[in-house]
C-alpha cells in the first residue's frame, strides 16, 4: 500500500515531460513521430469496411467463381438471383453514389477528414487534439466519449464553419421525401419546399439523402428560424381530394384558443358529404378552470362551432369529440383507445387542421404510442415542430397497428396498472396547488406510453438468449494525452431506413399540410412577434374595469372601445401573460397608438415603418351585448391573440367597437367559453383599472 501511495505521489509531482517518459519510456517528440508514421501507413493501407453495395459483391463473386455451382456459399448474405427491376435499382443507386462521391470532392473541399481538421487546428494555435470533440458527418451513429485529466486546461472548441450553398435548377427533383415536412428533396429553388443547397444535394448518397432534412426544417428545428417557402392552394386541394376517393377517417384538429378561426372552412365538399370525422380540441392544457364541469362546457361549445361551420351535414359525420394536449399528453391515451376499438382497421386516417393547431405535435406523439407499428417506430422521422405556422408541407405517414383482441387486451392491462400511479400524481398536484398555487400544478397533464405486445413465450426466449436481438454500437474513446484507447467494433448496425414494402397490408396515418387561414393573424407575424403572443403555459386571465368612453389596447394588434353603457363593466382578457394591455381615455387613444406602435410599449408588431406597413391597418366592427346575472354575457374573439369576456349587470346593454388588423378573426361568441370570470378576479390594484390574479384552486 505504501508503494502504491509513493507512485501516485510521484506521478502528481513530476513534470509532464518526465511523466510521459515514465509511462512510455520515450520522449514526446519520438512518440509524435511514430504516430505520424502510423497515420501515413493507415492512409496507404486503409482498413476494409463492409460498405460495398450488394450489386458489386454479387457481380464480383459471379465473375470470380464463374462456372462453379456453389459459388454463392462463399457469401451467404448475397442473394442467388436478382430480378430485372432489382438489378436496375441497385445499379442506379450505385451510379448515384459514385457521382455523389465525385461531387463531394469537388463541391465540398472543406469537408476534410477528421485528422486533417485536427492538424489544421493545431497549426493555427497549437490546440491539442483532445480539446476538439470528434463528430464526423458520416459516423453519426458512433458515440464519442472525451476524457480530460485534472491537469488539462479547458479551452473553447473550434467550430469549422459551414458553407452557404446555391441552388442548381438543372438537377432533377429526387424521389426522397424530407423527414421533417414530407416535401421531396431537391436543389432547384430555395423558395420551393424540400430545398437543400446544391453543393450538399449533389454530394449526398441515396442513404445520406434519406436521412436528411430540408433547409427549412433544419432552420426551424435547430435555429428557430424560418425560410420563406410557399405552397400553392391548388396543391393543397389536390392532397385533400385524395381523401374523397379513399375509405378513410378524418381527424380535424381545432385550436381551443381560437376555435372558430381554426376550423377549416369549406372542408366537407373536398372530402365528401358522408365522411366520418373526429373533432380533436388541442391545447386544452392552456385553458384555465373557472368552475366544475368546464371541460364538458368546452366540448359542447366545440361541437356547436363545428356544426355551424358545416362539418356535420348529415347529422352523423361527427363520430367523436375529445379534448387533448399534444404537449402534455393529456387525453392522448383515450384518443388512441377510441381509434383502436371503434375505427380499428376500417381505413386510413388523415390528420387535418389549420396552421399552428398542433398537428405535427399530435403526429409525433402518435408515432411514440401503441397506434404505430412497433417495427416501424424507430425508423420514422418525426414531423417538424416549431412555433412557426405551417411546418408540414406534404404528407407524412406511419403504419397503423393491427388492433387484434390480444393487442387491445395487453394495452388495456397496461393502462389499468398505470391508473393508480396517475391518480396518486394527481393528488400530489392538488396538494401542491393548494399550498403553492403555481400554474404548473393546475395544468392538465397525461402520459403517452408504449405497450410491450410480446407474448409470454417470446419474453421467455429473450430471457434465455438476451444477446440475440441486441444491436451493437461502436464507441470512439479519446483521452487528453492524444492516445486512442479503443476504436470499438467495426461492425456497427446503423438504424435502418424505412421500407414501405414491409407494410403493404397496413392502414396508414397521414399528417397533411396545415391550412393557412387569412382569419388568423399569426400568419402575418415574424418569429420575434410570435414568441410574444403565443402562450407557453396555462393562460392566467387578467380582469380590467372599463368605464364608458375608455379604450383598451391589446398590444398593437387589437383595440376595444367601450362606446356606451349605463355602468362600468369587467373585461377579462384570456391572452398570453406577456402581451401588454393599456387602458386610456377615448380622446387620447389615437395619439397613444401613433406614438407607441412599433415600440416596446405595445410590443407587437415590432419594427420600423417598412415592417409596420406589412401589417394591415386596424379596422373596427361593433357589437351590442346584454348582461346576464353574475357571469360573462359573451366572448369577443381577437383572432390568434385570444379572447375577451365581457361581464355586464343583468339587463344592461353595452356597446363595444373592436378593431383587428384588416378586421379579420374577430367574432362574437355566445354563450361564453368560461362564463365564471369572477373566479379569476382578485383585489383591485390601487390607481389602475386592473385586478390582481386570484390564487388558483383545485
Automatic annotation (TrEMBL):
Domain G residue range list: 349-401
Top-level division of the source organism's lineage: Eukaryota
GO MF terms held by the record: GTP binding
InterPro entries assigned: GTP-bd, Mito_transl_resp_regulator, NOA1/YqeH-like_C, P-loop_NTPase
Domain NOA1/YqeH-like C-terminal: 571-670
Entry-linked Pfam families: MMR_HSR1 (PF01926), YqeH-like_C (PF21516)
Name of the molecule in the record: G domain-containing protein
Organism of derivation: Potamilus streckersoni
Lineage, uppermost ranks: Eukaryota, Metazoa, Spiralia, Lophotrochozoa, Mollusca
Amino acid at each position: 500500500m505504501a508503494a502504491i501511495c509513493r507512485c501516485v505521489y510521484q506521478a502528481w509531482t513530476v513534470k509532464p515531460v518526465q511523466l510521459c517518459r515514465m509511462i512510455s519510456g520515450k520522449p514526446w517528440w519520438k512518440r509524435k513521430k511514430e504516430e505520424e508514421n502510423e497515420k501515413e501507413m493507415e492512409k496507404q493501407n486503409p482498413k476494409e469496411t463492409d460498405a460495398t453495395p450488394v450489386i458489386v459483391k454479387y457481380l464480383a463473386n459471379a465473375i470470380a467463381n464463374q462456372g462453379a455451382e456453389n459459388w454463392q456459399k462463399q457469401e451467404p448474405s448475397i442473394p442467388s438471383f436478382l430480378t430485372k427491376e432489382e438489378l436496375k435499382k441497385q445499379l442506379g443507386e450505385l451510379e448515384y453514389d459514385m457521382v455523389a462521391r465525385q461531387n463531394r470532392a469537388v463541391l465540398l473541399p472543406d469537408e476534410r477528414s477528421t485528422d486533417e481538421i485536427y492538424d489544421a487546428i493545431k497549426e493555427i494555435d497549437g490546440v491539442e487534439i483532445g480539446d476538439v470533440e470528434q463528430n464526423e458527418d458520416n459516423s453519426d451513429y458512433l458515440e464519442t466519449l472525451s476524457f480530460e485529466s485534472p491537469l488539462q486546461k479547458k479551452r473553447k472548441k473550434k467550430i469549422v464553419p459551414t458553407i452557404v450553398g446555391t441552388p442548381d435548377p438543372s438537377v432533377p427533383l429526387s424521389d426522397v421525401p424530407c423527414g421533417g415536412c414530407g416535401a421531396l428533396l431537391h436543389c432547384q429553388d430555395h423558395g420551393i419546399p424540400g430545398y437543400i443547397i446544391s453543393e450538399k444535394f449533389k454530394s449526398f448518397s441515396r442513404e445520406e439523402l434519406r436521412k436528411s432534412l430540408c433547409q427549412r426544417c433544419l432552420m426551424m428545428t435547430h435555429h428557430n428560424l424560418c425560410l420563406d417557402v410557399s405552397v400553392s392552394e391548388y396543391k393543397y386541394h389536390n392532397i385533400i381530394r385524395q381523401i374523397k376517393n379513399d375509405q378513410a377517417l378524418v381527424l380535424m384538429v381545432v385550436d381551443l384558443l381560437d376555435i372558430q378561426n381554426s376550423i377549416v372552412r369549406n372542408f366537407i365538399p373536398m372530402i365528401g358529404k358522408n365522411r366520418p370525422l373526429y373533432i380533436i380540441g388541442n391545447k386544452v392544457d392552456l385553458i384555465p378552470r373557472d368552475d366544475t364541469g368546464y371541460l364538458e362546457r368546452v366540448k359542447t361549445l366545440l361541437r356547436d362551432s363545428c356544426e355551424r361551420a358545416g362539418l356535420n351535414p348529415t347529422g352523423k359525420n361527427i363520430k367523436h369529440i375529445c379534448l387533448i394536449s399534444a404537449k402534455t399528453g393529456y387525453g392522448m391515451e383515450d384518443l388512441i383507445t377510441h381509434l383502436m376499438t371503434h375505427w380499428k382497421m376500417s381505413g386510413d386516417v388523415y390528420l387535418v387542421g389549420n396552421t399552428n393547431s398542433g398537428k405535427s405535435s399530435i403526429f409525433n406523439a402518435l408515432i411514440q404510442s401503441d397506434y404505430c407499428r412497433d417495427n416501424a417506430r424507430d425508423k420514422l422521422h418525426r414531423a417538424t415542430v416549431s412555433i412557426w405556422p405551417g411546418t408540414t408541407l406534404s404528407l407524412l405517414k406511419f403504419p397503423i397497428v393491427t388492433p387484434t383482441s390480444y393487442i387491445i387486451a395487453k394495452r388495456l392491462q397496461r393502462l389499468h396498472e398505470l391508473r393508480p400511479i396517475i391518480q396518486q400524481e394527481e393528488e400530489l398536484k392538488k396538494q401542491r396547488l393548494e399550498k403553492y398555487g403555481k400554474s404548473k400544478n393546475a395544468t392538465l397533464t397525461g402520459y403517452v406510453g408504449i405497450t410491450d405486445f410480446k407474448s409470454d413465450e417470446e419474453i421467455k426466449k429473450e430471457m434465455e438468449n438476451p444477446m440475440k436481438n441486441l444491436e451493437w454500437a461502436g464507441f470512439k474513446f479519446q483521452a487528453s494525452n492524444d492516445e486512442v484507447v479503443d476504436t470499438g467494433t467495426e461492425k456497427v448496425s446503423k438504424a435502418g431506413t424505412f421500407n414501405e414494402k414491409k407494410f403493404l397490408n397496413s392502414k396508414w396515418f397521414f399528417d397533411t399540410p396545415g391550412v393557412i387561414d387569412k382569419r388568423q393573424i399569426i400568419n402575418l407575424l415574424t418569429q420575434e412577434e410570435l414568441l410574444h403572443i403565443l402562450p407557453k403555459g396555462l393562460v392566467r386571465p387578467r380582469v380590467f374595469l372599463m368605464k364608458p368612453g375608455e379604450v383598451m389596447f391589446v398590444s398593437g394588434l387589437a383595440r376595444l372601445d367601450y362606446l356606451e353603457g349605463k355602468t362600468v363593466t369587467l373585461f377579462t382578457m384570456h391572452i398570453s401573460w406577456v402581451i401588454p394591455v393599456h387602458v386610456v381615455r377615448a380622446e387620447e387613444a389615437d395619439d397613444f397608438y401613433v406614438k407607441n406602435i412599433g415600440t416596446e410599449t405595445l410590443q407587437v408588431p415590432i419594427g420600423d415603418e417598412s415592417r409596420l406597413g406589412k401589417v394591415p391597418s386596424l379596422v373596427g366592427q361593433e357589437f351590442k351585448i346584454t348582461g346576464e346575472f353574475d357571469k360573462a354575457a359573451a366572448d369577443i374573439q381577437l383572432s390568434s391573440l385570444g379572447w375577451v369576456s365581457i361581464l355586464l349587470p343583468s339587463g344592461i346593454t353595452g356597446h363595444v367597437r373592436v378593431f383587428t388588423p384588416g378586421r379579420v378573426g374577430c367574432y362574437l361568441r355566445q354563450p361564453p367559453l368560461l362564463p365564471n370570470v369572477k373566479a379569476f378576479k382578485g383585489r383591485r390594484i390601487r390607481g389602475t383599472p386592473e385586478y390582481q390574479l386570484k390564487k388558483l384552486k383545485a
